[in-house]
Structure formats: C-alpha cells, structure tokens
Specification:
CATH topology of the largest domain: Rossmann fold
Number of helices: 10
CATH architecture of the largest domain: 3-Layer(aba) Sandwich
Helix content: 25-40%
Largest sheet: 6 strands, parallel
Shape: globular
Structural class: alpha/beta
Radius of gyration: 25 Å
Distance between the termini: 26 Å
CATH superfamily of the largest domain: NAD(P)-binding Rossmann-like Domain
Low-confidence stretches: 428-444
Bound molecules: nicotinamide-adenine-dinucleotide
Number of domains: 2
Mean pLDDT: 91
Length: 444
C-alpha cells in the first residue's frame, strides 16, 4: 500500500476500527472516525495515534447517523474543513442479524431498520464521498513515486458489503436483501465515478469476529456452530484480516552517519526500483544491491550505487535484496539463478518445487537456502485466493559444475522481465524455463 492522504472511516466497530488503525499505521496523514456511538469512535482515535507513522498525523472523531441525510453531509463538510480533502472514504457502518427472521413474520419496521442503515446509509455515504472527491484536484496514486505509471486519482471509496451480497442464508432476509443492494450501489457508483478518477470498490467478507457477529451468536441458537462448520480455514476471520486484504506497505530504514560520526537514519522510503514479473502477477521491490566484496561504505558510496543502479537478477561480485509480492495463485516459471539465495517467507504460504519434482510447503518465517537449483514458486496462500510475499537475498557465486556439466543461469520465460538490465543484455527467449516448462506455458 502507498497511503499518505486523509481517510474518513464511518463505523468504528470491529472492521471499521481495524481499517482506521491500519490506515494510521500505513502512513495516512489524517483519519476521521464517524460512528453513531461517539465514545467508540473516540477510543479508535486514541488507538490510531498510538500506531500512526506519518509525522504530521491528525485524527478526529465525530458522531454520525448514516441513515440521516444532514448528518452524513455534515461529517463530509467537517472532514473537508479539518483535513482539506477526502482521499479515502471507507463505509463500515452497518447492522446485522440479531435473531432469526422468516419472511412470513418479518415486521416492516425491522426490515426498514436494515434498509435505513445498510442501504440508505451506504447510498448517502457513497453520494457525499462522490461529491467531495469530484470537487478536489487529483493527486498521484503513488505519492512515494514507487509506481509512477499509475497516474493520478481524486479519491478512493470502499464500501463494506458481505458474502451475503452474493448468497442467501436461513433467517437473515433483511441483511441479505440490503447487502445485495449495496453490491449494486457499489457497481453502479464505480461506473459513474470512473470518469472523474475516483476508484470505487467493495469488500465482501465472510464471517468476521466483531460485535456484530457476537450479537448474532448470542441471539440465534446454533449460529456459532453453524459459522464454524462452514469456514474452510477452520476459524472465523479477525477484523484485521478484512482491513489488511492486501499486503502491508514496505518501509525501508537505511542507517548512515552524520558529520560528527553519530549513527542516524536516512529518510524513510519504499525502495529504489520496482519491476513487474511473471506476466504482471508478481512485483519485485529492490530494497538494496551491492556490486563488490567487501562493500565500500565510505561516503555512502554503497547507498549511491544502490540508488542509481537497478540490478539484474543478480549482480556480479555483489548482492541483491529483493522483496517479491505474488498475486493470488501465481506460479513462477521453472528457473535457475546462478547464486546462493536466502528466501524468507514474509507473508503467506508457498510451494517450492524443484526440477526433480520434489516439493516442500513453506509457511511464514520459513527459509529456503536455494543453492542454484532449478525451481519454481507457487503461491498457495488461502487456497490460491490471497497475495503473499517473499524476501530474497541473492549472492553471486563462482562458476558451477553439476553432474560434470557447467551450469549457468536459466530464467526461461522470466528472462524477458529482466531484458535490458545488467547481465540480461540478450533478446528474450520465446519459451524457456529450463527450455521446457510445460506447466508454466499451459498456465500463462
Ligand atoms: N463481521 C462480519 O462477519 C461481517 C461480514 C461481512 C460483512 N460485514 C459488514 O462489515 C461492516 C462492518 O461490520 P462489523 O462486523 O465491523 O460490525 P460492528 O457492529 O462491529 O460495527 C458496525 C458499526 O456501525 C455503527 N453503526 C450502526 N448504525 C449506525 C448508523 N446509523 N450510523 C453510523 N454508525 C452506525 C455501530 O455503532 C458500529 O460501531 C458492516 O457493513 C457489515 O455488514 C461484516
């Protein structure tokens, strides 16, 4: 994530609280939390201050009733007055089922309660967010400069829909109905807002351990057992897993020395060079590279080298420290790098498959010491539904002989992603991966 703007999070309950805290931690310059329950919103503000990473961070709480037109207009006006603009609008206000309801005995008042908050409320928040964002000038999607090709944007709107936006369950008709409506609201608002450079999305979580679900567990007999029996990962999600649906922002801290010889940090950044790989299903963030051994730190010569030179997959006589984020289900081509490679799983679960067919599953914190073997990585996180991340540190090695044969790097189709970088001057091969990567060819 590349977060630096101002966020309005409406609904500071389980998921809203997690979103606000995450935004503060990821670098937002301002967060306003609105809720019907002002005391709950105030507590979230304190929690945001405790984790904020932006040195100019500001946060405020406000009472809002999303079912009331004036109340929603007021909180957006206040947001613009206090913070100047609304870069992110996240609507997490909602009501859930507290006891079973059947269509034949459902009072209109109860149905209307869901419509007022979940549907009218979502509409009013979506409308005011659209109005506020259309009135502001676009800013870079990636203010850090890490992804310059992503252009500019006026704002980002996220609405909390639900798995119930796509399916029905016994006894929760008003919830299912309003969540289906919210999905339509998101879809149409996304189309309406796209020409104005406003991105609109929704998140459709399954059961998540928040006050909303705890109330349902108390009021609906057998609900907790039903939830637990239905979840493929064997447990209910935690709110942070909904807020943090992507991978956290990378923050790089480089040390140096000042003129008096005291240790200090260079300004925080997100890495110098970024490169899309594997048909854009993985992105490499080069955290550092060196080109000699021993490394020359005098006058920060190494920092200058790392800044000015995007490395190839390895650097002759040097090292590369590279973080790679893999999209859900990504299968890398079979490839061999001429290096000794320390690979640490930072997020997610991977299969590492060798050219012999031998394979191992690596979990978060597991380390592979890859001694120039032909291998592929498969991101199997969440059954292939979630992104994941590996940190690679590669060191150059001497010429290598295996089974009596000289072995060089063989990146297969991955070679085309490195063309033009040092060590990759030649034209990209059309197919490859040990020259014969049927699995990769069939999947891409
Ligand atoms: N928890 C889950 O399992 C789950 C699953 C899928 C979707 N969702 C959706 O995520 C969103 C957040 O749910 P949660 O689990 O964090 O619930 P929660 O009950 O913990 O939080 C909801 C918040 O909305 C506030 N709220 C209620 N009515 C309001 C109103 N009229 N105006 C302003 N604020 C109001 C409540 O005070 C509360 O703080 C909801 O839209 C919910 O439907 C939740």
């Amino acid at each position: 994530m590349d977060i630096s703007g101002n966020a309005l999070v409406i609904g500071g309950g389980g998921i809203g609280r997690a979103c606000a805290i995450l935004l503060a931690r990821e670098g937002a310059s301002g967060v306003m939390i609105g809720d019907l329950d002002l005391e709950a919103a105030r507590k979230v503000v304190d929690e945001c201050f405790a984790v904020a990473t932006n040195s100019g961070f500001r946060a405020e709480s406000a009472q809002v009733d999303v079912s009331k037109e004036d109340s929603v207009s007021n909180i957006f006006d206040r947001m613009v007055d206090v913070f100047g603009r609304v870069d992110y609008s996240v609507n997490c206000a909602g009501v859930g089922a507290e006891r079973p309801r059947d269509i034949s005995s459902l009072p209109l008042s109860e149905f209307q309660r869901f419509v007022d908050v979940n549907l009218t409320g979502a509409f009013l928040v979506m409308r005011q967010a659209s109005v506020a964002m259309r009135a502001q000038v676009p800013r870079p999607v990636s203010p850090s400069g890490a992804f310059p090709n992503r252009g500019t944007i006026r704002g980002v709107i996220v609405d909390l829909c639900s798995a119930a936006s796509m399916a029905a369950s016994n006894g929760i008709l008003p919830y299912t109905t309003t969540k289906h409506g919210q999905l339509g609201l998101t879809r149409n608002s996304a189309i309406d807002n796209a020409p104005y450079q406003i991105r609109v999305n929704c998140i459709c979580p399954s059961w998540t351990d928040t006050p909303m679900v705890r109330k349902a567990n108390e009021g609906i007999e057998g609900h907790a057992d039903f939830v637990n029996s239905k979840l493929p990962i064997g447990r209910i999600a935690i709110p942070e897993e909904v807020a943090d649906a992507g991978l956290p922002r990378v923050v790089r801290h480089i040390t140096t020395h000042n003129d008096e010889g005291k240790s200090m940090f260079l300004p925080i950044d997100v890495g110098d060079h970024h490169r899309e790989l594997v048909n854009k299903s993985a992105i490499a963030n080069i955290l550092y590279s060196t080109h000699e051994h021993p490394v020359n730190l005098n006058g920060d010569a190494d920092v200058k080298y790392a800044r000015e030179n995007e490395p190839g997959i390895t650097v002759k006589n040097g090292t590369v420290c590279r973080l790679i984020d893999f999209a859900p289900g990504t299968v890398s081509p079979l490839h061999r790098v001429k290096s000794i490679d320390y690979a640490v799983v930072i997020e997610g679960v991977f299969k590492m498959v060798l050219d012999s067919g031998e394979e191992r599953v690596l979990h978060r914190g597991d380390v592979a010491i890859n001694r120039s073997t032909a291998h592929r990585w498969i991101n199997v996180t969440g059954g292939g539904l979630l992104p994941a991340r590996i940190l690679f540190v590669l060191q150059d090695i001497r010429d290598l002989t295996i089974a009596g044969k000289n072995v060089d790097k063989d990146l297969g189709v991955l070679e085309k992603d490195y063309v033009g970088l040092p060590g990759h001057a030649g034209p990209a091969p059309l197919v490859g991966g040990g020259g014969n990567d049927e699995k990769f060819d069939s999947e891409f």
